[in-house]
Design brief:
Two copies of one chain form a homodimer. Chain A has helices at 27-39, 43-54, 56-61, 67-74, 78-90, 110-116, 125-140, 142-148, 164-173, 178-191, 211-219, 234-243, 280-293, 315-330, 338-347; strands at residues 65-66, 95-98, 104-107, 201-205, 224-229, 250-254, 266-272, 294-304, 306-307, 336-337, 350-357, 362-368. In chain A, the strands form three sheets. In chain A, strands 6-5-4-7-8-12-11 form a seven-stranded mixed sheet, sandwiched between helices. The first copy, chain A, has a three-stranded antiparallel sheet with strand order 1-3-2. Chain A is built from 15 helices and twelve strands. Chain A starts with 26 loop residues before the first helix and ends with a strand. By secondary structure, the first copy, chain A, is α/β, with parallel strands linked by helices. The interface between A and B is large, with 121 and 121 residues.
């Protein structure tokens, strides 16, 4: 068990000061504290979602306020409002300073405003809505899915519990992953000699909001992109392309991945969070189809939670494996290893060029073998 | 907002490698990753509780196993079992090594065995049972309690949602806090000249399992303790005193704190996690009663989640404030500040001697003014 201090994430809020454990103390007592800290992980979504539900973040986006002011504004109990705000401060979600009369004044840091705003480009509002509707029950009852394999009584894989409406919220709610992943991808493409000229075309298969293509278009000013997705999603992608100033180079296509033709001149074929939804069989089929659509010097870029068995303690492996557990809870897919991908690539006449680390994901680049 | 890396806790599992963020990147994107990591805090209790429910930890206490072996033993789906075990490995709850045939073999580290065992001295099994029954719904619906103040329609404070049965489980399930707190307390007593002779008596008011007294009796071999609690709890304390070899010096008393006499010769009056359950009025009354029971050179020791407004970023403040939010969710009390305690002490003819940090709590020592 890894018990060394870690500095790989600045995001966590320690609730145990392990420096105060007695030297050479009981390993079981330390282990119990560590497990307790895992168990109370539920507190963080609890306070954040309650505050979002009550409109506290929207109110604080307008300016700092005391617990009394917020309680009046939101129609909530004063003491309970103070407890909630202090809890959010404990997680460093809110600032807390003493006002002139000694009462604490709470503030939402500017970089957090868009995070809670429904229309923010990198908003998590959709993720929160989805979690409110689906995640709590699913995680509370995970044991049932481990028993059944999340399969229906007929043996089929459980339907994804995410409704169409939730999916639309969720697809916007994970845009925030895109900037660091796109940066890693752009650097990787340049490092491997991929060039962007006026004749370069990319396809973004299952583009969602199109955020990855749209950020790449800003990186490569001559590149043009086609975003393929279902009818319900493409208007979101079109609207966002306008917002990001790349609408003239980003075209959406309503597309049935499996049956429609993708063309045969793609310089770049991008798959973000698509492969974890596949079975080994459908992954193989997808890569065969990609191989046919790819120009001779084209590159396939797969951004996903990809496990690298040779990097066992890596943050990317941990996230990948826990995301697989999340999908076991709510439906949706699995985490595959780079060894799985290598096999699928080889079977489709392709080969891996690079495997790059992003903050939570990995980016795999591949080309014709 | 604090975005610096922290090493105060070795317990967390980072899921974002913040070192891979682009230099000078967008603050909102970083903030969104940080918030996401808070929101997925729900994953940790999800996987741990599912494994406990399914009996996976009990099985692994007997020895390492593959996913196939566990799935057969537990009657669970193979793929889903593998996903669950990999998730527990991601949180460093399970070890994972490659067996000779290449299949991962999962192991529960020895220091974790007692943590999941119902009868373990520092077991969290009772905490997990309580969380399964109460915590999920309570945290999911926290916003309701912030609106209502967790009060009944008649205006009274909400009844604690913890049933008697759950409380009995829970009171055993938080023993693990005791060893480092008791060590801090014993060192503090010695540092302030408190001595233990054959005539020294302590009372442990609301003793629960009696773990704090029992560990102190092991520190101070001439000390004798009386543990006061309700009828349902004292048999637990008696049994545990035997287990820890101090039954000859630990006596339980079924006691109504408010109406029964505590005597007047206590060298040490101990209150662990009692004051957070009080109102300011009942805290005042409790300290008045303590003052009367305390020998002239006696010491009052209060171990609780105590907020120190002068140490705003401290781990102890964060835990205190989040525990207050937890009590808002499930019922039970509040977090008071050291300034509150100082006022109550002064009103009862007492004065603070010391305020000491434990890994999650603070220990306040006081004596006659």
């Amino acid at each position: 068990m890894n018990t060394s201090a870690t500095t790989a994430s600045a995001n966590h809020t320690p609730l145990v000061d392990t420096a105060l454990f007695p030297e050479g103390g009981d390993g079981e007592v330390r282990a119990a504290h560590r497990l307790y800290e895992h168990l109370v992980g539920i507190w963080a979504p609890g306070v954040v979602e309650a505050a979002q539900d009550l409109g506290a973040f929207a109110a604080l986006t307008e300016g700092p306020a005391t617990a009394a002011q917020l309680s009046e504004r939101l129609g909530t109990d004063l003491r309970a409002t103070r407890v909630l705000l202090d809890g959010l401060h404990a997680y460093d979600v809110l600032g807390r300073a003493r006002g002139e009369d000694g009462q604490p004044v709470y503030s939402l840091p500017p970089e957090m405003h868009g995070v809670f705003a429904p229309g923010g480009l990198y908003s998590l509002a959709g993720k929160i809505t989805h979690d409110r509707n689906v995640a709590w029950d699913a995680w509370r009852n995970l044991a049932e899915n481990v028993r059944s394999g999340a399969r229906t009584s007929g043996g089929a894989q459980q339907l994804n519990q995410i409704s169409e409406e939730d999916y639309t919220a969720l697809v916007r709610g994970i845009n925030f992953w895109a900037p660091p992943i796109t940066q890693v991808l752009a650097e990787g493409l340049r490092a491997h000699g991929w060039t962007s000229g006026a004749d370069r075309r990319m396809i973004d298969v299952g583009c969602g909001t199109g955020i990855y293509s749209q950020l790449l278009l800003n990186e490569f000013p001559e590149l043009r992109a086609r975003g393929l997705d279902v009818e319900r999603i493409v208007p979101i992608a079109q609207e966002q392309a306008k917002r990001l100033g790349v609408a003239d180079r980003f075209r959406t296509e309503i597309c049935d991945f499996w049956n429609d033709d993708w063309g045969n001149d793609s310089s770049l074929a991008l798959f973000v969070n698509i492969f974890h939804l596949q079975t080994p069989e459908s992954a193989h089929e997808l890569l065969l189809k990609t191989s046919k659509s790819l120009a001779e010097d084209g590159v396939i870029a797969i951004a996903d939670h990809i496990v690298d068995e040779d990097e066992d303690g890596s943050t990317q492996n941990k996230f990948s494996r826990l995301f697989a557990a999340s999908m076991l809870a709510t439906g949706g897919g699995d985490a595959f290893t780079v060894q799985d991908y290598d096999q699928w690539l080889a079977d489709a006449g392709l080969r891996r060029i690079a495997l790059l680390d992003a903050p939570m994901h990995r980016v795999l680049l591949a080309g014709h073998a």
